[in-house]
Predict the structure.
Amino acid sequence: MKSKATSFDIAYAAGVSQSTVSRALSDSPLVNPETRAKIKQIAADLNYKVDKNASNLRKQKSKTLALLLFEDPTPDDSSINPFFISMLGSITKATAKAGYDLLISFQNLSDDWHAVYEDSNKADGLILLGYGNYTDYEHKLAQLEEQETHFLRWGAPDKNHPNISIGSNNHEGGSMIAKHLISLGHKRFAFIGEINAGAPELKARYDGCLSALHEMGLEEGMLAQVDAISTEADGYKSTVSLLDKFDGDKQLDAIVCASDLMAIGAIRAINDRGLKVPQDIAVVGYDNIPASGFSTPGITTVQQNTMLAGQLLVTNLLKLIHNEEVKDILMQPELVVRRSCGNASN
Amino acid sequence: MKSKATSFDIAYAAGVSQSTVSRALSDSPLVNPETRAKIKQIAADLNYKVDKNASNLRKQKSKTLALLLFEDPTPDDSSINPFFISMLGSITKATAKAGYDLLISFQNLSDDWHAVYEDSNKADGLILLGYGNYTDYEHKLAQLEEQETHFLRWGAPDKNHPNISIGSNNHEGGSMIAKHLISLGHKRFAFIGEINAGAPELKARYDGCLSALHEMGLEEGMLAQVDAISTEADGYKSTVSLLDKFDGDKQLDAIVCASDLMAIGAIRAINDRGLKVPQDIAVVGYDNIPASGFSTPGITTVQQNTMLAGQLLVTNLLKLIHNEEVKDILMQPELVVRRSCGNASN
DNA sequence: CTGAAAGCGCTTACAG
DNA sequence: CTGAAAGCGCTTACAG
C-alpha cells in the first residue's frame, strides 16, 4: 500500500492542529462545522483512514469481537457443521451492525486454549460456538471466568456457570418432535445420537422425547438409542444396526435423529433396505439445514432461530463489555413439518 | 477482564529493564537464556500477553488478514454458498498456521466499498471471495490496485488485472463434464446457469461444455441454455421449463447444471415429472457440496480443491505483503463420478 | 547481553 | 471552538 497519510498530514493541509483533525473526524461537537467539513474533504481526498492500532491503543479497546469455533467429532477438515454456518452468518452481520470487527478462529478442543487469551488482547470479547465434549469444555469455561474475560457461549444454560449462555431449548425441541410423531400414530421410537454428559444438547433432545412419551402415556415408547456422531455416514450405519435389531418396520415406527445429517443417512439406509419413508418408518431430524428440505422426502425437523441467536449473542456480549448485566437465554425452537413423518396434509 | 499486566510489571518483578522483557518474550537472541527463562516464567504467572495494538502500532503491521465475502444473487440471509464454507475453513486454517489472525466481513457488492479501506488499517492484506456481477466488481478491483492494497481474489485470472487471481479452471471442468456425458452415450444437452460477462466462471463452464461437444463432433449438442441463480428453487424451475420445451426425455439426454444446488432442484423436477435420473435424463452438478453426495441418486459433479485453494490464497497473499512477486494460478478441477449420469460401474 | 530513550499514530484531559 | 502536551504499551536502533 502507499505510505499512508496521518492525521498530521491532514492537519498541515487544513491549516489546523492535529487535535482538531482527530476531533473533526470522530464527529466531536467541539469543532466548527465548516472546519469539520474542510477536514473531512481533505481526509477523503488523501484517502486517509484512522490507524486502528493507534486508536485502539489510545482508547484501550479494540472494537473487535472474536468468534471461537470448535467442533471436535467431525474428522473431515473441509466440512463445517451447517448449523454453524448460519450462526456464523448472523453473528457476522450483527457484529458489523454494531460497528465491530469480527475475528474468527477455529479451535480444536484439544488445542492449547491459550490462543484465547492471546486473542483477548485483540478483541473486547469472545463468542464461543461449538459442540465438543462438554466435560472438557467446562474446564476452559472456568478459566475464562476466572480471568474475567468478557465472553458468551452458545449452549444450554448451566447452573454451574450462570449468565454466560444463550441457547436453544433442546428439551422442548425433542418434545415437539415426539408429540408430532405420536399425533401421527407412531408409537415405537428409536433415537440416534449421543446422550452422555459430554453432549448435553443432544441429551436434552432425547430427554425431551422421553418426557413427551411419558406425558402421552407411552412409557415404553423408546425402544433403543444408538450413539453416533453427526454425520450422514454415522446416521446410515446406526440405522442399519437398528433395522437389523428390530427387523425393520415390524417393530419400529420412527427413527428420531439428533441432527439432519444423520436423518439423511437414516433415510438412505431405510431405502437401501427396500423400505419407504414415511410409509414404513418415519424419520425426523434436527437443525433444518438446507439439505433437509432438498431430501426426498423432505425431512421434518426442528429449526433453531439462528438469526436471532446471532444477534442476541452479539448484543449481549456488547452489554457485558459495557459492564451491564446479562442473563442466560433459552430460545424456543420451531417444528418444521415436511413429509418424512407422513403427516396427512402433504 | 482484570487490569492487564504490562511489560513494565514483568520488568519490575524480574528486576530487569522493560526492553529486556520485550526481547525475551519475542525470543530475541540478544538475551541471556536464564534471564529469558525467568522472564517467561513471570509472564506466564502474571498471565501477561503482549498488547497487539501497541505491538502492531510500533511494528507498523497487523499480522492480520481480512477476508471479504460477498455474494449478491442469493436473497436468503441465512444461507451461504456451501462452496464458500469450505473455502472459509481452509483459509482460516492456513491463516492460523501462518501465525496471522483472520478478520471476516460479509460485503454486499452494492455496499459502499469503503469498508475495505477501513479494514486495510487493521489488516496487512485482503482476500476477496465471492461471485457477484463481475462487471461491477471489476471496478472495485481497479480501485484496490490503484491504492496499492495487498490483495488477492478467488476467481479466474483476468488479463486486465494480472497477478491478483487464484482460481479453478472452469473451462476444463465444463469440458470434463461434457466428455464424461458423451462417453456414456449422451448427446443432447441443456445447460442451466448464467453465461453472461457478469458471471465469467459459469460462462467458462458452459464454454468448456461447448468445446468438448465440438471436439467430439457434436456441434449441435447444446440444445438450450437457461439463466438461473444458484439455488435449488431456480434449478427446479429451470428444469421444469426445459422439460416442457423439449417434451422430457424424448429430446433431451442430459441437464448440465452450473452448481450442485441447481442439480438437486433439477433432479426433483425430473422426479416430479415421473421421469428417472439417470435412466431418462442425466444430471450433472458442480462444486461437490456435501448434499450432492447425499442426493438420490448421487450427483456427478466437479470438485474444486478448496483446501489447496485456501492455502494458496493465504501463502501468496503473504508473499505479496512481503513484496514478493506472485503469479496468477489456475487450478485443475477433478471430476467426481456418481450415479446421476448412469455410468456403468455403479 | 543490557538499559535508556525515542517514537509508532492516535485521543483526550487541560488550558485558553 | 482550538492548540499544545501527555501518554496508551510496545519494539528497536543506539550506546555501553
